[in-house]
Design brief:
The protein contains 11 helices and 16 strands. The protein is of the alpha+beta class. It has 2 domains: 238 residues, 2-Layer Sandwich (BirA Bifunctional Protein, domain 2); 77 residues, 2-Layer Sandwich (Enolase-like, domain 1). The strands form 4 sheets. The chain has a 6-stranded mixed beta sheet, sandwiched between helices. Helix 10 runs antiparallel to helix 11.
Length: 321
């Protein structure tokens, strides 16, 4: 088994490294890693529906999509991530308890009353401190999870704060849970770096015959290529979202109107405006949004040169996101 303690905080690189090691080598692996502030959505989620767009823009928080399913999670410098990649027998690879149990044992060694929850998470006092997800590739399984050590809970809450039913789709929805930080329960005050090192050493001791491995050379180049061509692309992060529609009321020139938009592969495929006095030029402006990325900046730039009044130009992007 190879054990990697990643010093790279690039969320896109780390997600790419998981896929690279899952699909391109035969060794079992353990990876411990962190990210700069970011929201990571599950593979089958509608990214647009899972994040607080305005807050993320204002706080420069990144958005990424991972290879596994499940709901959206928040990463920052106070959150630690662990990844297991193991070989196994097809049909018997999905086993959340198998991978969560050693992490719980580690937490128990720190005298923490950690328990495996009903949703394949880890809890203390029934508060969530770890979310987990898996992905199977042939005879190998990727299992990864979060550990909220001293995450900024306020940022986490606001980054994942969404408006229910704003987007009409059939995607996997996140189940929001009350969360807590591990550091609040520790009698011995340690930093997240020390916590990470202790976890790493604990897992090495538990899995005999391990080898500490560094990502470099050909591996690093291959992961960077996968990062640039997939994980850091708009097409993967947003365009991979399932089709959805949105209906929003808006007042234009003192007239109540209804905007209806359909999106597929992240692009607007249909856009209509309905109202008692929509106006031919307004209908054309909305209709001409077809083909645009459903992206805040792209829609803002398009409306900026349109004939809509200034108030509408400002309001429309806000109500869509």
């Amino acid at each position: 088994m190879l054990c990697i303690f990643s010093s790279n905080n690039d969320v896109f690189f780390n997600l790419a490294s998981e896929e690279y090691f899952l699909k391109n080598i035969s060794d079992d692996l353990i990876i411990i890693w962190k990210s700069t502030p970011s929201v990571i959505v599950g593979k089958h989620q509608n990214t647009f529906a899972e994040v607080n767009h305005k807050y993320l823009r204002d706080k420069n928080i990144l958005v990424a999509r991972r290879l596994t399913g499940g709901g959206a999670v928040f990463h920052d410098e106070g959150n630690l991530n662990f990844t297991f990649i193991k070989n196994g027998e097809e049909g018997k690879l999905v086993d959340f308890k198998k991978f969560i149990s050693p992490v719980v044992e580690f937490l128990e060694s720190l005298k923490l009353p950690a328990k495996i929850g009903l949703k394949n998470d880890v809890r203390i006092d029934n508060l969530k401190i770890s979310g987990n997800a898996e992905h199977v590739y042939r005879s190998r399984v990727l299992h990864h999870g979060t550990l909220l050590f001293n995450t900024n809970i306020e940022k986490l809450s606001k980054a994942l704060q969404v408006y229910p039913n704003r987007y009409i789709d059939k995607s996997v929805q996140s189940n929001r849970s009350e969360v807590a930080n591990i550091s609040d329960y520790l009698t011995e005050k340690i930093s997240i770096d020390e916590f990470a090192e202790r976890l790493f050493n604990f897992l090495i001791d538990k899995h005999k015959g391990t080898t500490v491995h560094k990502i470099e050379g050909i591996e690093a180049k291959a992961i960077l290529k996968l990062r640039d061509e997939k994980y850091h692309t708009w097409e993967w992060i947003y365009g991979y979202s399932p089709p959805f529609s949105i209906e929003r009321k808006i007042t234009i020139n003192n007239n109540d109107c209804l905007i209806k938009i359909k999106v597929a592969k992240g692009r607007i495929i249909e856009a209509n405006i309905y109202g008692s006095d929509s106006g031919d030029h307004q209908i054309k402006i909305i209709d001409n949004m077809k083909g645009l990325r459903f992206e805040y900046s792209e829609i803002v730039n398009y409306l900026e040169i349109s004939r809509l009044n200034d108030a509408t130009k400002k309001l429309l992007p806000e109500i869509l996101f």
